[in-house]
Amino acid sequence: MGGALSALLDGLDPFCGPVGLFRLFGANSIIACGDAGWGDEIAFGVKVTISLALATVPVGLVLGFLIALAAQSQDRLLRMAAGIYTTIFRGLPELLTLFIVYYGAQILVQSVLSSFGVEERIEINAFVAGMIALAVVFSSYSSEVLLSAFRAIPRGQYEAGDALGLRRHRTMRLIVLPQLIRIALPGLTNLWLILLKDTSYVSVVGLSDILRQTGIAARVSKEAFFFYFIACLLYLILAMISSFGLGFVERWAKRSGVSR
């Protein structure tokens, strides 16, 4: 069963499958799949980039939603904490945030273990560190988008829920959230495209994404322009596919809003 599934996935591989993109360059080209070229390595980098972006979005959205709720809370300390969070992580360069998470988390864990007498060296997984760092940055920007969407929803919507006898969490789920998603979707679409580009930062901590794999290929083959051009094409293809898919979702959300 596992062998059949693996064969099916290999056949559907858009890069190294039977009709894959890299097959167009010929079996003997430097971007061919297999031992002859760098196609397999670059295809793996694309999968890592997409996986990292997809893993980051739900974490960043949940954090951003909680921060947006805190920013409009009646509690002054919550509002202040949300303001400090967004100011810091929107102000810091993404690369610096990644370094803080990757190296800082290692130092923190090492210090905690040392206090218990454990001297074993700990290394944080690059994928997890990259996901946390990008999620933190994504949440700081998405919280502002969601906060603007919250403020665009009339106060009467909440009062209507109260009048219907709905508890506040049901009002949020049934009345506010559908409108919130529709209003915030254009802004979140832009943030997703920015996130796709920001995944390239993780190459500096050793994660095998598109930029790292093409960079290694460029150094070894001495064909820097060719491989970095391939990297540009791959990022543009991902951006175009994302724009098409998210544009469809936006149109669906608008039609859904009108039907209500």
From TrEMBL:
Q: Which InterPro entries match?
A: AA_ABC_transptr_permease_3TM, ABC_transp_permease_HisMQ, MetI-like, MetI-like_sf
UniProt GO MF annotations: transmembrane transporter activity
Q: Where are the transmembrane segments?
A: 48-70, 82-104, 124-153, 174-195, 225-249
Q: Which Pfam families match?
A: BPD_transp_1
Q: Where in the cell is it found?
A: Cell inner membrane; Cell membrane
Which SUPFAM superfamilies does UniProt cross-reference here? MetI-like (SSF161098)
Key words, A-Z:
Cell inner membrane, Cell membrane, Membrane, Transmembrane, Transmembrane helix, Transport
How does the record say this protein sits in the membrane? Multi-pass membrane protein
Question: A Gene Ontology CC term for this entry?
Answer: ATP-binding cassette (ABC) transporter complex
Name the domain of life. Bacteria
Q: What is the lineage of its organism?
A: Bacteria, Pseudomonadati, Pseudomonadota, Alphaproteobacteria, Hyphomicrobiales
PROSITE patterns assigned: ABC_TM1
UniProt source species: Neorhizobium lilium
Family under the similarity heading: Belongs to the binding-protein-dependent transport system permease family. HisMQ subfamily.
Annotated ABC transmembrane type-1 domain ranges read 46-246
This protein is called ABC transporter permease
